[in-house]
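Slide 14.
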Amino acid sequence: MILITGNDSRPQSLVISDFNNDDLLDIGVVNSRIHNIGIFLGYGDISFGNQITYSTYPYLYPCSMAA
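Slide 15: predicted structure.
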């Protein structure tokens, strides 16, 4: 499985949790170089959707994540 986080994104940390409360595991990743948090929503069949990003620019430079 390959999850695309973006060109030169420098993924630094990840966490597996149910971010959208659908009882399916999702993947959260910190993209430190492009200043965002990415979420890959799980489909429940060992596959995931495209990354949904939440910007932290210009105030935060994410380096870790917890759920």
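Speaker note: The chain has a mean pLDDT of 92.
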